[in-house]
Each structure stands twice: as C-alpha cells, then as structure tokens.
C-alpha cells in the first residue's frame, strides 16, 4: 500500500521517544499501515507506511540517528541512538515504485496506529508474492 495513491494527504510530525529525532511527512493516515512478520519487523513491532522521499523531511536529530541494514540491503532502518526507537527506513525497491521512505506510524504524533486499518505481509516465509492479507494470523500460503 502506498499512501501517495489514497488521496487525503496531510502533513504530520513525529519523532522518537526521547525527542532527539523529529520528522514531518505528508501522508494519508486514513489509508492505514502495514505489519509484517519478518524477523526484523516482528521484533520492532512497527506499523509502517510508505511515502516518496519528497514527502518526508527530517527536522532534527540527524546526528542522533544510527542505522541498520541486513540481507539484500534494500532498506536501511534508522533508529535513535539515545532511546533506541526505530523511526523510519529508506530504500529502493522497484515493486514500491523505486526510492521510498518507510515511516513507523507508532512514531507519528497525531496517529494512533491501533486505530488505523492495517494489512499484513508474510515476510517471515518470504511469501511476498501472496500479497497483503487483511488479518495477521494464521498466515498460510
């Protein structure tokens, strides 16, 4: 799901727990987010949404950011060195339209990720071709 296609975009601000990292992003909160059960997403429990890089701006805290990459390195995840909160990721994936920023909706100030619709991906089993699912469990091929 990409919020660029949903229509009702608005500017939202957010950041990490300690406040060192702050950002703003133009996104459609009503479009909801996505959850994934891959090894990293499952452990950080993020609900994410995707925006194009020009819809995202880091406001403060660049020096507080640390990053983590693994596997094929299609995504670099950024987290605060002080509080450890995963705030956003950046990457390039043709299936997502090229360059993207993945925003952790848990970090957006005025969005309760428990109140937005979510879709679920089976990343744990590399089952991307099955597409998103409306519920988390059980995930079957």
Question: Summed up, what is this model?
Answer:
This protein has one domain (3-120): Metal Binding Protein, Guanine Nucleotide Exchange Factor, Chain A (Beta Complex). The protein has one helix at 39-44, and strands at 10-15, 22-27, 33-36, 48-51, 56-60, 65-68, 75-80, 86-93, 98-104, 118-121.
Question: How is the secondary structure organized here?
Answer:
Blueprint: E1 10-15, E2 22-27, E3 33-36, H1 39-44, E4 48-51, E5 56-60, E6 65-68, E7 75-80, E8 86-93, E9 98-104, E10 118-121
Parallel strand pairs: 3-10
Antiparallel strand pairs: 1-2, 2-5, 4-9, 6-7, 7-8, 8-9
Features:
globular; disordered N terminus; 141 residues; 1 helix; single chain; mainly beta; Metal Binding Protein, Guanine Nucleotide Exchange Factor, Chain A
What is the approximate shape? globular
Give the CATH topology.
Metal Binding Protein, Guanine Nucleotide Exchange Factor, Chain A
CATH structural class: Mainly Beta
Our Rg estimate from Cα atoms comes to 14 Å
How many strand units? 10
Helix percentage range: under 10%
Arithmetic mean of pLDDT: 85
CATH architectural label = Beta Complex
Multimeric organization:
single chain
Number of helices: 1
Structurally, the number of domains stands at 1
């Amino acid at each position: 799901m990409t919020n660029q296609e949903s229509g009702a975009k608005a500017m939202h601000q957010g950041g990490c727990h300690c406040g060192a990292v702050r950002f703003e992003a133009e996104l459609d909160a009503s479009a909801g987010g996505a959850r994934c059960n891959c090894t990293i997403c499952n452990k950080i429990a993020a609900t994410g949404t995707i925006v194009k890089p020009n819809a995202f701006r880091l406001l403060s805290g660049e020096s507080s950011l640390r990053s983590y990459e693994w596997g094929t390195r299609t995504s670099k995840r950024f987290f605060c060195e002080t509080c450890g909160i995963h705030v956003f990721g950046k990457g390039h994936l043709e299936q997502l339209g090229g360059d993207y920023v993945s925003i952790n909706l848990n970090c957006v100030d005025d969005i309760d990720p428990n109140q937005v619709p979510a879709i679920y991906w089976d990343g744990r089993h590399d089952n991307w071709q099955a597409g998103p699912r409306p519920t988390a469990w059980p995930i079957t091929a």
